[in-house]
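To the team - TNX complex, inputs and output below.
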Amino acid sequence: MHTHSRFVPLENDTSPAILPAPVSMTYGKGYFSLGRDTVIVTDEQTQAVGMLLADALRPALGFTASVLAEAPATGPTITLDIDLALIHLGPEGYVLQVTPRGVSLRGAGAAGVFYGMQTLRQLLPTDIFSATPLQRDWRIAAVTIEDFPRFPWRGLLLDPVRHFIPKEAIFKFIDLLALHKMNVLHLHLTDDQGWRMEIKKYPRLTEVGAWRMETIVGSLRNPEGYDGRPHGGFYSQDDLREIVAYAAARFVTVLPEIEMPGHAQAAIAAYPELGVLGEPLEVSTTWGIHLSLYNPTERTMSFLKDVLSEVMTIFPGQYIHIGGDEAHKEQWQASLQVQARIKELGLKDEEDLQRWFLTEIGDFLTQYGRRLVGWDEMLEGGLAPGATVMSWRGQSGGILAAQMGHDVVMTSLTHVYFDFAQSNDPAEPLSIGGYTPLDRVYAFDPLPTVLKAEEARHVLGVQGMLWSEYIPTLERLEYMAFPRLLALAEVGWTPPERKDFVNFRQRLARHEERLQHLGVTFRPVTTWEQERSFPPRRDRLVELQEEL
Ligand code: TNX
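Output:
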């Protein structure tokens, strides 16, 4: 039951709309005026953040604030410092103090200072996000903010396989993640419908695997034929290096995903010998679960290790995602060769084979100091040692994994699937189905109460999922992400006792002005009355059962 009252914007409300809400905020007296004479003063470690701040302010101000290593004798300053005395706030925490004389921003690490900088932008009038110069009084009310995140993992998955996402759009998403203090961009790089990463040793992966002949029109349930247009694209290794560097400068880690042993049809289309059937296949033109699996031969394992070696040269992060979801075992069951392989390896059955497969890959990654991440199906055959689990089919997989001492990221389809419809309005664009309105995302609690304290420590955080079967354009991608991504940002950052949905919507109303300036397509907030007047949709979970 929703007991929230109808959202009414507060009249004359001038309190800043900080999103996600900070841990603590105390108002002082007066205000700081940002003007042509304001300089940004940094130490060595915060200089890059200072430059990003000057860059972020430039379009609306119409001038570039100087970034200096020493404070001038007089005049207003914004000072950015590393302060190890703040280590109790963690590497991402910060203290931001605004007084009429100046702004001081400190953190134990550069990431904290960066997040304080994002808060500072949100303390200014929303017009500071304008892309063109505006004549305004750039005032910031005096305030002291002390802030740090609830979880270390605050992610978003983008799926450039089902519909390709050009590099520039990835940059825009990285900026939007950083603005909302999120720090992981999960790139789903391979699947049945395409292979999106250049691999030098296997050029056919992108020559053949990056393109499909056409794409299904309408929903999988009620298809309206095919569009007859080739679709594809891929990121060169140089593109990916650029993406990784752009993200790193904004304290976002890019998590690459190479799917196995299922969701492998594009790879098999490029190199049929990797498949169980050994027959030519097409890059898939449709959605849903496919039956093509990798053939678990020595040759396939070497191929995957070669691919992952190249992945590791591009992506410096600790984690590498190897998929592991929705690998239905029909092909392995029916193949005499695979059955013989199971015997040869002394394994029980196909589930055991998947466990062996992923353990091999996990050991390989471990040798290089990396850690394997995979979807919760990994739990079925037994988890590879040290594996981190993304719990997508609800939270039970995550609970189990945490109880077994494995790290977990909560990505539950009950709350954070941004490919699901966000309203029951019949005018909503076609989506995969389901119903995940804003308040549902906001109410997500990634820490199930059944977990004991030492188990709960294994819950690294949360991640939203933007699967893009039904997301053919960049406008739609943004529309599905906003505003739900903002609710997720607050789930990942703000302490639960500070969360308040009515207040969140008030801040969101203001925040929409910023999104508008940034050229982000978003779904305007609906009232409860509107939302309740629409007929309910079918439950996506029921639909999924039927699709299997
Ligand atoms: C399930 S979530 C999948 C994806 C689909 C998604 C659509 C997961 C690990 N697998 O392949 O895109 O559903 O909601």
